[in-house]
Amino acid sequence: MSTSAPAKAPTPEQPGSGAASGALDRHFRITERGSTLSREVRGGFATFFAMAYIIVLNPIILGSAKDVYGNQLDNGQLVTATALTAAFTTLLMGVIGNVPIALAAGLGVNSVVALQLAPRMSWPDAMGMVVLAGFVVMLLVATGLRERVMNAVPYGLRKAIAIGIGLFIMLIGLVDSGFVARIPDAAQTTVPLQLGATGHLDGWPVLVFVLGALLTLALIVRKVPGAILISIVAMTVVAVVINAVADVPSWGLTTPTWPGNPLATPDFGLIGEVSLFGGFGKVGVLTGVLFVFTVLLSCFFDAMGTIMGVSDEAKLTDAQGQMPGINKVLFIDGVAVAAGGASSSSATTAFVESTAGVGEGARTGFANVVTGGLFAVALFLTPVATMVPSQAATPALLAVGFLILAGSVKEIDWADYTIAIPAFVTMVMMPFTYSITNGIGMGFITFAVLRLAAGRGREVPPAMYVVSAVFAFYYLMPALGLT
Fold this sequence. Notes:
Layout: H1 5-8, H2 22-28, H3 37-51, H4 54-63, H5 75-97, E1 103-105, H6 109-117, H7 123-142, H8 145-152, H9 155-177, E2 180-182, E3 193-195, H10 204-221, H11 227-245, H12 278-283, H13 285-313, H14 326-342, E4 348-350, H15 354-359, H16 366-378, H17 382-385, H18 390-393, H19 395-408, H20 417-433, H21 436-453, H22 462-476
Helix pairs in contact: 3-16, 4-5, 4-6, 5-14, 5-16, 6-13, 7-13, 7-14, 9-13, 9-19, 9-20, 9-21, 10-11, 10-19, 13-14, 13-21, 20-21, 21-22
């Protein structure tokens, strides 16, 4: 994704201040991509802190559900599985894929596993469905189909996907910080969100977010290296102090308190607890295939949008918006989906919060080595890793979302309605439906229909028609009684 100056060209550093050399530089092509070792390290830290919440949130989502036998997954084991899989897959993407795209348990997919699969089968059966979805993703990559689908996306829609992701992560930041909140159903209103929890900005946590957002943006305007990471660390310290001296009812997911015992013993009890085909015996072949298809579709397009967006933002794409060596990245993503199922942490996928690291100047897989290493350390220091409150980390998403939007919106041909309208649909549906997949699907369908309506159907790549038909079937599944 193109961005404004701060993201395009981080402030130059003095020669030798963070330059990479030797085998490390050659493998990760740090200098070739215009980066430095210090930028990659900063980017790796920023990405970790922006997505460390998954260590806490994923166990909450999965651990709160019961399978068909009434069994629940152990929270401590889920923390270990989540951190371990994020560490392994992020390192794999960094060392082999050489891109600054971190991976962890996918939000949305874990809800599908917890709320749709588990109530119909055992937990090992449900995780087996996830593993099978990962195998299918790898097969699609091996046959070249996944790359053909990505390459068939028109340039304008690629930019729209980038903008949609920017708006989406901005909304994630606003919601996770408490700056905006869901209006309870008891209010009986069609308005879904409001300012703060009560319609007003009140409470210390919201103040931490506001100060963090202003600090982050001010540092970016001043072109200070490490702006995002500086803000995260500074506001974490502020939050810890506030929590110690003030009466704060709730910080939400994570309370910024220095743990009495920073060490934790990993519990690997869920690793390998998988039944590949047991679920089909519980729900039948057709329903089982549809379950795998549902997981596959979400993983396939969520990751596709994120990979396209982050790689463009990191200047890893060519003039046509395509990334050299994309097949390695896509295959690793398929491995990650299967690895998530094998560890019982749900499907692992590319995280849009990687843009926080890219905003710090990360351009290579070495940033992933740092992020993955921090996830590995988190296996033993989970209490410390999870003390950063969302109010300290989410200003990074607000800032990066703006930079993405500012740099990409001018790249769309707004005069051509057959691309402008699908682009608009793609952009708004991602935040409005809280799903990258939905934004892509609705944008693709709109593009195919409008090009046909304009008599320009031959300009639509065949792969776009196929994918649009798949999405249309997916959206019609409830009406057809197939869910």
